[in-house]
Structures are given as structure tokens and as C-alpha cells.
Amino acid sequence: MNRTLIFNWKTAGILAVILLAIAGLIKYLPKILSAQSSAAAQIESEPYTENRMQMVEETIISRGVKDRQVIAAMQSVPRHMFVPDQYLDQAYADHPLPIGYGQTISQPFIVATMTELLDLIKGERVLEIGTGSGYQAAVLAELGGIEIYTIEIVPELAQQAAERLAGLDYDEIHTRQGDGYYGWKEFAPYDAIIVTAAPDHLPLPLVQQLKEGGRLVIPIGPQGGYQTLWLFIKQGKEVVAYNKGGVLFVPLVSGEGSD
Ligand code: SAH
User: Fold this and answer.
1) Which pTM was predicted?
2) Catalytic annotation on 106?
3) Are 192 and 143 contacting, i.e. CB atoms less than 8 angstroms apart?
4) With contact defined as beta carbons under 8 Å apart, do 135 and 124 qualify?
5) How far is it, in rounded angstroms, from Cα 42 to Cα 185?
């Protein structure tokens, strides 16, 4: 009789524990589920991460870009936010895309290559001619600790890029609308200058606005044809030139008028 009673108490105890566990599970189930769904939502909100990593691996690292900071910068900048909506599906393909006004956002491999050639270190100041979408400027900003000045000649593109870069909190990028052939005297000299539109000769004002030891990366060639990508390094009164191969850029429209 007694034994039966003890047995019953035990059973009741076990049952109570099981019931409590079920109650706890019911209480916290919504929280567990919502934690899972918010993690899923986060992944969904950046559906391009995988495409971007793949693009960097297959078209940038595998083709010889070695600078780890440049690679990290290319992995960070959301290129899909710099291309027009109708080209979103090609945002991480390795080719240029139209951005309106007859202009293009450059091919990622070329952006990475030119950035690597600039050989920037923290604390340096760089000038970009041809802001376009603002993508190249954003890649420079992701290097960290670099002060960036960028000029765009098409007023609408200059305005759009300024808004886009501000919206993405790239506070270290200073934008301006104007003719970049003449550089940006106010903040010269620069440790490096990058030109992302092609003139048919080397613009003298850019050489003048380069610091001693400064690097200038620029495509030069005839309008409507292929150009040569040059790295110039200012050494005393001389500018040493290194040929970095054939490229295709939109022309630098300018050379007339003044700053
Ligand atoms: N760096 C850009 C690609 C630019 S395409 C990007 O990352 O998206 C070249 C840009 O240079 C075009 O937007 C074009 O309007 C601009 N450009 C052409 N001539 C210029 C000049 N003289 N001064 C400033 N920008 C110029």
C-alpha cells in the first residue's frame, strides 16, 4: 500500500517536471523562432554577399591582385548600390556597366588593379578624376585612413554620387563637380592621383599637383580606341613611367577652359 503511494508521488513529480519543461518550451518557442527568422532576414537583406565574394575570388585574386587591403576593400563595397536598378543582376559581373549620360562604372578587376598601383598607406591624400558612380572612391575609402578628393564633370552624376556616398557614410570622401583636367588645387599636393577617364596626353596640372614620390595612375590614348594604363612616379624633376598594359576607358572630356 505504502509502496504504491511512494510510487505515485514519484510519478507525479516526474510528470510535474515534464509539464514544467513543456510550459517553458511553449513560453520561449516564439522567441527562439523569431531569433532564427531575424538571422535569416539579415542574410536575405544582403543577398549579394556571396556574389561579391565569388567575384573577388574569381576575377580579382585569381588574376593576380595581391594587396590584402585592396582585396578586403573590394569584398566590402556593395557594388550593387552603385549600378542602376536595371543592371542589378550584373552588379558582380566583371565588366563595366552604363550609369547614364554615356558614362560607365568601371570593371571591378580594373578598379582593383588601379587601386593596388596607387600603393596608398594610412594618412595619405588621394585625388580621383572621374567620380562617375562613386564606386572607385568607395573602394579607396574602404582602405581606411585615406583622405579622398574626387571630381566629376557631369553635374547630374556628381550630384548622384555625392548623395550616394553620403548615404553610405563615406565621410572621408570629398566630392566636387568640375573639370578634373586641372586637378583640385585647393587640397594639393596629393600622395596619389587616379584618373578614371582617358585623355590623349598626360595632363600637366595633375603632375604639378603630385607630391614628391607621388603616384599617378592614368589611362592615356586616342579617343575611341584602346589606351595604355600608365603608372607615373614623381621623382625630383623627373616623372618615371611604367606601362601597365591595355585598357578601355571613356574619354576625358576637357582640356579647354580653366579651373
Ligand atoms: N570612377 C568611376 C568610373 C568613371 S567613368 C566609377 O567608379 O564609377 C569616367 C567618368 O569620368 C565619367 O563619369 C565622366 O563623366 C567623367 N569625366 C570625364 N571627363 C572628365 C573631366 N574632365 N573631369 C572630371 N570628370 C570627367
Assistant:
1) 0.84
2) yes
3) no
4) no
5) 44
SS (H, E, C) 174-243: EEEECCHHHCCHHHCCEEEEEECCECCCCCHHHHHCEEEEEEEEEEECCCCCCEEEEEEEEECCEEEEEE
49-247 classified as CATH 3.90.1150.10: no
Residues of the chain with pLDDT > 90, as a percent, come to 78
Low-confidence ranges of the chain (pLDDT < 70): 1-45, 255-259
Is the CB–ligand 1 distance for residue 116 below 6 Å?
A: no
> Could you tell me the distance, in angstroms and rounded to a whole number, from the CA of residue 197 to the centre of ligand 1?
5
The SS3 call for residue 25 is helix
The protein residue with its alpha carbon nearest to ligand 1, atom 19, reads 252
Query: Which listed residue (106, 133, 254, 258) is catalytic?
Result: 106
